């Protein structure tokens, strides 16, 4: 359970419980206000004094409730939450002063005349202001703290939603960049074959239609079967075999591959990169791809030959994209290792299932 799924935090922060929070708040205020009123009336023999106490407590309760809702509905959202801290502080002090003078006024004009000697009365002094101000500050400060806590939860949830939306958008963009990148390289090969070997070019076109069908209907899903990704790699390498006779490839699987679901196009960039940088126009080239399933882990590796003639540095857009996708999909849970040897290039990837 995440902290924000805690029932108490949900009750405090979620808008659907607002009416219940306010109801409980008012009921607690009534209990606190009139429990003291009952205790005081029991100690007073005069009926007139009892009515005066009830009247003063009722007016005090309504006035305090009004000040609290002034704080909740006006001062906090329009001053404190808009970074007008100085104005909020002045307003807060003004409310405390108003509370003190209203309490003194009610005591002086309603309670003292009916019971001057048997009750503790509010004096017009600094000490009384500090005492009443301290009690009021605790009550009003609790309300401010609660509203700040609610806003903090709302802001954190909003930032989390923006973060998740941003990650999802970025993942879709990265995935979509892989597909055109692969298509661009394949069309380049096809362009060469149309001039050198039209028959092979027609075979490539048929194979390419199968690959594009996979990209259109399967890769758009959030997860696909690993077996389909392996079939796609096999078709891709078969196209390369048609284009270049002296090219050998081998796809190995170990463990239960069937039924394993993964995000699409995780391994295509490594294979496409091996084809791009590992093939040579002359001489023999090879690529070995291995999928090994262990306990809740998938281990992928590819080993490709390097041409005798030095080509451009191994890497490019595809590998940068897949590295970023791995960071987003499996943060801190994947292991990617590359080894650029003199005669071959090795990639090892481990991801959780």
Structural summary, described in words:
This protein has 9 helices and 7 strands; from the N terminus they run ααααααβαββαββαββ. The mean pLDDT is 78. It has helices at 7-13, 18-42, 47-78, 85-111, 126-196, 198-217, 226-243, 268-278, 317-329; strands at 224-225, 247-254, 261-262, 285-294, 297-305, 335-340, 344-352. α3 packs antiparallel against α4, α3 packs parallel to α5 (126-196) and α5 (126-196) packs antiparallel against α6 (198-217). The chain folds into 2 domains: 3-124; 172-352, Heat Shock Protein 90 (2-Layer Sandwich), CATH 3.30.565. The strands form 2 sheets. It has a 5-stranded mixed beta sheet, with helices on one face. Strands 1-3 form a two-stranded antiparallel ribbon. β6 (335-340) and β7 form a beta hairpin. With 353 residues, it is of the alpha+beta class.
Task: Describe how the helices and strands are arranged.
Elements (H helix, E strand, L loop, with lengths): L6 H7 L4 H25 L4 H32 L6 H27 L14 H71 L1 H20 L6 E2 H18 L3 E8 L6 E2 L5 H11 L6 E10 L2 E9 L11 H13 L5 E6 L3 E9 L1
Parallel strand pairs: 2-4
Antiparallel strand pairs: 1-3, 4-5, 5-7, 6-7
Entry keywords:
63% helix, 2 domains, Heat Shock Protein 90, alpha+beta, single chain, rod-shaped, two-stranded antiparallel ribbon, 9 helices, 5-stranded mixed sheet, 353 residues
